[in-house]
Queue: 3 jobs
Job 1
Amino acid sequence: MSRAIRVVKIGGSLLDLPDLPERVLTWLSKQTAAYHVLVVGGGAWVDLVRQANATRPMDDVAAHWLCIELMNFTARLFHSWCPEIPLVENCDLSVLRSADCDATIFAPAAWLRQNEPALPGTRLTPDWETTSDAIAGRLAVALDAEEFVLMKSTHPEQHTLHDLKALAAGGYADPMLARLSSELPPTRWTNLRSSPAGEFTIR
């Protein structure tokens, strides 16, 4: 029998936490049994691309792929902090499905270029509306994950809770993730910056 898969998007805004590796490992240790696939956001490096684009606009597709490459960089960065968690950059998701470890850090660039466009369901758009939120969500769909977790730095306003469209409208998640809403597995929000982590179920 195959193991349950839980895809966890680690927000790039968390990368400035000095104890981020310890917080993530502690959180993982408290979860129900599952194989965790960790996707790391681009953080301040992607913000620099946004700032550069505001100063001198670039092609949306070129900006999109530049940000994707930065997600590979942050995946490697997080792996350097948690070397006990393997790093996978392979575009073939069977590598993840057959993994014999408890967690993996997934660098998504090769998969997004070579595999994601051919998958069934809602395709990701190569523009600013698609960020690491939607990329991790699409991966959760592709892996047929039992749960998808958005690990963030904030706790949204009360009226946006439990509704991805409201979260996207409020700037807490990207618009593309809201479009994937009907395809996503049960989804949970975790504010890892708070102690203890504040959590709620979105859907």
Job 2
Amino acid sequence: MRQIEKMVRQKGFSRIAGIDEAGRGPLAGPVVSAAVILPADYFCPDIRDSKKLSEKKRRQLFPEIMTHALAVGVGLCDHREIDTTNILAAALCSMERAVMNLDPGADFLLVDGKFLVNTDIPQQAVVRGDSLSLSIAAASIIAKITRDRIMATLDQAYPQYHFIRHKGYPTGVHRQAIKDHGPCPVHRKTFKGVIQG
């Protein structure tokens, strides 16, 4: 999980940020990205792809990462920006914002997936990066927990959609709520499951 970072450090970089996003698939709410710079000598065996961790474990690891990281940046694009552009453009935009929110900033980026971020900072796209890079895995946990907290707040505003249960993903319960009540203001109006109900 630290091999990619090690190879990048051998090229002379020191502040290596792993970047990942959460929320490309849901029908509601924002897409959230996180950028995390970990110390070179830091390792936590429990940190891995957030999708492979229980919600309880992610919540336990969140303060662990926040405490030990040299820097954490978070960025998001809300439902309006997603509808104005598209989910891929919004996800990359949220990644760019996460990088901009790093303090201190990064001198190299490891980006989960196939696409690069719009920045002059040297970077590398890493397919399945959340399973291969410790810093990307840490970012996946920060992004997921941050988005879940946003959806919990939206659940209080729109309780009829049960966002606390499915976090906006297209479950049967969510689809039925859209059929019963129509979309709410934070639904992604351009998404198939929303426009068809």
Job 3
Amino acid sequence: MKIISWNVNGVRSVQSKGFAEMLALLDADCILLQETKAQTDQIDKALDGIDSYRIYSNCAERKGYSGVTILSRKEPLQIISNIGIVEHDREGRVIVAEFEHFFLLNVYVPNSGEALARLDYRQTWDREFLAYCRQLQSKKPLIVCGDFNVAHREIDIARPKPNYNKSAGYTQVEIDGFSRFLDAGLVDTFRHFHPDTVAYSWWSFRAGARARNVGWRIDYVLTSKALVDKVKQAFILPEITGSDHCPVGIEIDL
């Protein structure tokens, strides 16, 4: 099973950049999109003509903001939207597909914002989202994919020193928040297979950052420890363009 996660920074925007052709090239069984920035009818229209996938979306109340979508070739047992906390759920950040042997969760974690204005909210989110992941994991193994909006280690960010505790996504609060997911029994699959590899999944649109590879690794596929031995490979695909993020993913025997 091939699972791809991609923050598309607007599904209607990426639609005009060869999106259908890129999905065909990726040839994944499940494709998890974040930051779709659209309502369900707009997403369905943008993805019209992309065959062989069932489409499930969770959208923010605020139009043109946030949002997550799962495309799956196989029909899930059920789809669960949100985590049951209104403060978080209004932003459309979580959607879960349940399959026979595992849950597949798609998440777009809140950004702490300019001047770290939402850092306190981010702490609350991290704590309550982790509790939700623990609930799911108590029932069956879990795969969590998405934009976590944090570079976990120095190797995951091109310029750690000038960004540390100054920039959203690289504060100790956020780093510690992500570490707790690993402490809870989830494995960062890319680091599991590539412990010393420098690779990024997001680049600022400013100053030619992508061309110079001045990036951050903030997109992850985490799996329960029970699934790690079934993961054949974990990868990042910087050659796939169309967004300020690139796709990340795994191949897993399930």
